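Notes from the 1:1 (GR / supervisor)

We went over the backlog. Supervisor wanted to see one worked example end to end before approving the batch request, so GR pasted a single chain during the call. The sequence is below; no edits were made to it. Supervisor asked that the structure be written out right there so they could see what the output format looks like.
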Amino acid sequence: MSKVLTCDVVVVGAGMVGAACALYTARAGLDVVVVDRGPVSGGTTGAGEGNLLVSDKEPGPELDLALLSGRLWTELAQELGEFVEYEAKGGLVVASTPESLTALKRFAEGQRTAGVVAEPVDGEALYDLEPRLASGLPGGVHYTQDAQVMPALAAAHLLRVSGARLLTGRTVTDVLLKPDGTVDGVRTDRGDLLAPTVVNAAGTWGGELAALAGVALPVLPRRGFVLVTEPLPRMVRHKVYAADYVADVASDSAALQTSPVVEGTAAGPVLIGASRERVGYDRTFSLPVLRALAAGATELFPFLSEVRAMRSYLGFRPYLPDHLPAIGPDPRVPGLVHACGHEGAGIGLATGTGHLIAQLLSGRPPDLDPTPFRPDRFPVEEGA
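Structure output shown during the call:
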């Protein structure tokens, strides 16, 4: 018979958000078990670029969470050093026309009121920051708070230092409820994990886990590809993207959208994105998408036309209809706590999410108002 384990908190999902939830809840004094059907970072985290961004967020709850998360990432970088490959390299958002530059500056002005450091860059100053950019661009905005980590490494080391027990290769098949409807743990294909609190950090599969507890959470997968070049000397200094990337992130469209995003890495390869489309869990290789990514990248950085692409990979962003994650207790099932639906920002928002979850579970006043992230904020569809 499989052994039954008991703890204070079961975190379902060993990606970046689950790792951060484990870290901060364990540091709040709770006994934590993390369970995942695959390996650490086997889902969305392992297919991410590791961006920690404020540049793509308008003033509001998500930006507030990003600013909190950025401060926490800085603390973790000091603690963990090279283990997470943290780079405070900054971001550069580039406009292609004078009109788009005006709109970009207006967007940045609103961000500054919320605490973002956003510095307008005109003319030749743009090329002081990124000398290899295409010529003739009118300007952009420099975001010094943007940073990057190596996501799979970072998740592994957050789990390591958390002290939480890690159970990989175990599929959660049910959320256990007591007769009064409160959480009693989870059932896996290798035994039960008993706990009064279950944290849903299952990413793109967060809706499926919620359904096991009898509640609806409309998480959908949004597919994205990344193109990886051969290793190069550091030729792209920042995370650089075109101004229309922000609109693509905020879009509700299910259709394919691509906007150029280019960044160097500590290891040498340049990462090229970004694409978005809702096609379910279709993992089919798409040459047209990769061609669009390559074309957009070479428009920004012409030198890339002479650089070899070595590989590509894809992942699924956990998308919620209002583009905000679900964070906090679910009032429909006491003991069920959600930490999913971060779309493409999960790496960056993970630390703030885990920190808030730990505060809410330990009864401390949260640093941010959790109301905008309530998991029961979505209307129930008729017939559901």
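Supervisor's comment: The first strand starts at residue 5 and ends at 6.
Batch request approved.
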